[in-house]
Design a protein that fits this description.
ABC transporter substrate-binding protein, SBP_TakP-like, 53% helix, alpha/beta, five-stranded mixed beta sheet, metal ion binding, D-Maltodextrin-Binding Protein, domain 2
């Protein structure tokens, strides 16, 4: 139903689907292999890749298809993108930040600590951000399509109480992207683990804390069973997944197929965000009812983390020209967009929350 509604209302998609039988006759049959960077247990993110495959097949009347596979047991977070680089698959559905070790600019395609929220990220991507990222990804042999969004995230699960900044000293925490560098400046010991490894690492006390996503995914991973302190807010206002397509595979696609891929990725982004918005409240209630201690980060921790993030950005400006170029664009858009949010979006949301709290 989601695909039919989207195909009926999206102008681009509608134009493509009307011509689909003709396209299927005129263009070659194309079949992609897509490596997923998300485990089966995360049904929304993993399902996003499946939805992409189903949508392009429907739009092309079966001429343009893809199969989804992975990640294998013990796979590293970056393995899906690396499979594209090796030519083992045509594409990967993954998080750009998993490749931050190659260049810190990869992190900006997913989320920036204390950066844009979900709405602002979407606005930036559609106001030149996608083109900036795609030019960067091209250096690594990819075309990049935004393909999924989580919305705002939580601060994570902590096996010990965090009552002040000193409690972060020596904290072993798994997180992704630039959040790890922020934690490092605060004295913590960040590391990056695949989703399937987080539960066992917390259970065995190999780590003290885990920042993953939000209540829906965290509950799927069972993190509430191995840590009880659930802190908020997250330091990232939202996260975006990407479809990385090998440059050769992308360049060989007929124009109509490229349009289908972009439209399908847009549907995936809309659908994943809607599913998280629908699933997170219920999951949060269940997690708290089961005994999780829901707590805000102390103010001194939030302010120190914000300052540390600015120091991280300054350091990376010196190391990566691409990071500087992309981050300056992203930050400028967010700062301008905040003018509107301060006037309309935030006051409305705060007012409604206050009224709801009164009952």
């Amino acid at each position: 139903m989601e695909r039919r509604r989207f195909l009926g209302v999206a102008g681009l998609a509608a134009g493509v689907t009307v011509a689909a039988p003709a396209v299927a006759r005129a263009a070659p049959r194309v079949k992609w292999r897509i490596a997923s960077g998300f485990p089966q247990s995360l049904d929304v993110l993993r399902g996003a890749g499946t939805l992409f495959c189903e949508t392009i097949a429907e739009m092309s009347d079966g001429a343009f298809t893809a199969t989804l596979a992975g990640p294998g047991e013990g796979a590293a977070p970056s393995d899906a993108a690396d499979a594209v680089t090796r030519g083992a698959v045509e594409a990967a559905h993954t998080a750009s930040c998993y490749s931050t070790s190659k260049d810190p600019a990869f992190a900006l395609g997913t989320a920036t600590p204390f950066g844009p929220n979900t709405r602002q990220m979407a606005g930036w991507l559609r106001s030149g951000g996608t083109e900036l990222l795609d030019a960067f990804y091209a250096r690594f042999g990819f075309a990049g399509l935004p393909c999924g969004a989580t919305g705002a995230q939580m601060g994570g699960w902590f096996s010990r109480d965090v009552s002040g900044l000193g409690d972060l000293k020596g904290l072993r925490i798994t997180t992704a992207g630039l959040s790890g560098e922020v934690y490092r400046k605060l004295g913590a010991e960040p590391r990056e683990l695949a989703g399937a490894e987080v539960y066992a690492s917390l259970e065995k006390h190999d780590i003290d804390a885990a920042e993953w996503a939000g209540p829906y995914d965290d509950q799927k991973l069972g993190l509430q069973q191995v840590a009880k302190n659930y802190l908020y807010p997250g330091w990232r206002g939202g996260a975006v997944a990407h479809l990385f397509v090998g440059r050769a595979a992308w360049d060989e696609l007929p124009r109509a197929y490229k349009a289908m891929a972009r439209a399908a990725a847009a549907l995936v982004t809309e659908t994943t965000l809607a599913r998280y918005d629908a699933g997170n409240p219920k999951a949060l209630r269940e997690i708290v009812a089961a005994g999780a201690r829901l707590k805000p980060f102390p103010r001194d921790v939030m302010e120190a983390a914000y300052k540390a993030s600015q120091d991280v950005f300054a350091d990376l400006y010196e190391k990566s020209p691409d990071f500087r170029k992309i981050h300056e664009s992203q930050a400028a858009f967010r700062n301008e967009d905040l003018l509107w949010f301060r006037v309309a979006e935030l006051p409305f949301d705060v007012f409604i929350a206050q009224m709801q709290a009164r009952g």
